[in-house]
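Recall that a protein's primary structure is simply its ordered list of amino acids. Everything else, from secondary elements to tertiary packing, is in principle encoded there. The following example makes that idea concrete.
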Amino acid sequence: MKIIISGLGEVGFHLGELLIARGHELVMIDSDEETASRLEDQLDGVVITGSASSVEVLRKAGVKNCDFFLALTSQDEINLVASSLAKKLGAKNVIARCHSNLQREHKSFSYGKHFGIDYFVSPERLVAARLAKEIRTPITPVLDQFARGAIEVLQVHVDEKSPAAGKALMDISFPPRMRVGLLRRDPEIVIPRASTILEVGDEIILIGAPQALKQAAEYVEHNNKKKRIRIAIYGADDVGIGLLEYFNPVESDIKLIEPSEDKCKTVCELFPWVKVVQGHATRSRLMREENLVEADVFVAATRDDEDNVVSCLQAAKLGVKPILLTIHRPDYAGIFLDFGDFLGVTTTVSPRVVAGEELLPYVTTEPYVQLWSMKNKAEIIQLKLDREESELFGKRISDLAWPAGALLLGIERADGTIVPTASDTIQRNDSLLVINMVSERIKVLNLFESAM
């Protein structure tokens, strides 16, 4: 495929390396002449110096005939304009990088439809989702995440004390926007029906929005609510703000440390239940004064790698564990992936790495992508409905002839992801997340063949 990347920072360069390794034809655009010249020697692709918001530059890059255009600069405005122009000039698929403010505004304005963008991606929000998973997994076993953390896969067990034991799924008041995706009753793995009765010893896989899954897990596991987890976060940038959205005051006690007074005020306005401390977590005195030795987990999430590293070392000195580190520079990331445990760091997460893992499945001409599987019996696949017209568009989900061994989990759209209800409709450019038995895959693909 022919792919154009605009913005050769850490995320763009890393993704470029991955795509070239897969044999794709790559054209890269960067406005900085020095960066473009330096990277042209490192990447086996065409590098063009200029702004991707220029029609002339886009035409020079061959946007008319490209399969994917990825706007990955650090500036939202440039990414929006470049993406819109690329779509108008003929790019088949357009992906744009965005930051937290733009993501929050998606709730009130459809940037995707307005600018013709197929997907938005925020590396920082992906990091936040990964960190949230690491924090919550010891408490609630999160198996995987999809749709940039908007949908999770959770595993729970039905024991003799569970109020769900002996009940049919239709008789259980699960929260909206979630699904009971799989039931494992050894040796069988099935997609349950509404009439399926849960038995002691069953293992069920819940799939849906994180907050809904927490409520469902508490019910199935006989309301065995865990203690409130104490989280210390350093940094109120996109990663730190995004991380806060995965927790609430009922389950967590969060203390956030941030040097900037303005950012502290922003956190107080958005999350009034979070205790905000203005200061530097790199200073041992502040760490002791704020009694961070009692924290159950410490997260370094600023944009400054050096500050993140030093704050983690301070937390390790206090005996806090686990310690989660955000690292932006690739050379630093390599060091801490190899020696993190020795230095007291439990988990290291890099925006460029998680962005690459997120975006690669999208960059394909295959009719579907397998995102997850269980023992090669069940799987989660993703389908992109990008035909111009189809009799399926506008149909309600309940009106589709679903195979018995398949269930729709989520719909990804340019401006967000939903766990659909029966009355939601299928639209052009939807990306469907479907769980199905592997034996039923062909039936699922046939059902949506006219729209793919």
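The longest helix spans residues 76-89. The longest strand covers residues 178-185.
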